[in-house]
Amino acid sequence: QVQLVESGGGLVQPGGSVNLSCAISGTNDKIYLWAWYRQPAGKQREVVAHIRSDSVTTYADFVKGRFTISRDNAKNTVDLQMNSLKPEDTAVYYCAVVDGSFLWGQGIQVTVSS
């Protein structure tokens, strides 16, 4: 049974940076996509970025050039480096993997505020 645990969130000032990390425990050879989503308060969950098993990455327009998704096979982690943060980036961020269905982490709060 795969479990996902996010870490690294918190309060950051506008223009600042934070790195989110998702530790993936358990073994699942069927996973072909790793992703980060976010859900601002009162809004729907939206995709931020994802990385495929062939390392191709895709980003939402609102984070292009600011966020970077990466995967470490040896550590079995997927990170989201977030730079030039804006108040509108405030949200609960979720790690997810796809093996035909979505498996979710519990989410972690990122608040961008002065």
Produce a short descriptive summary.
With 114 residues, the chain is mostly beta strands.
Explain this structure to me?
This protein has 114 residues and is mostly beta strands. It is built from no helices and eleven strands. It has strands at residues 3-7, 10-12, 18-25, 33-39, 46-52, 57-59, 67-72, 77-82, 91-98, 102-104, 108-112.
Low-confidence stretches: none
Considering DSSP H and I runs of 4 or more, what fraction of the residues is helical?
Answer: under 10%
Strand content: over 45%
- The helix-strand sequence is EEEEEEEEEEE
Distance between the termini: 40 Å
Structural class by helix and strand composition: mainly beta
Query: What's the total number of strands?
Result: 11
Largest sheet: 7 strands, mixed
Quaternary structure classification: single chain
Q: What integer value in Å does the Rg equal?
A: 13 Å
Which SSEs are present, and which pair or pack?
Blueprint: E1 3-7, E2 10-12, E3 18-25, E4 33-39, E5 46-52, E6 57-59, E7 67-72, E8 77-82, E9 91-98, E10 102-104, E11 108-112
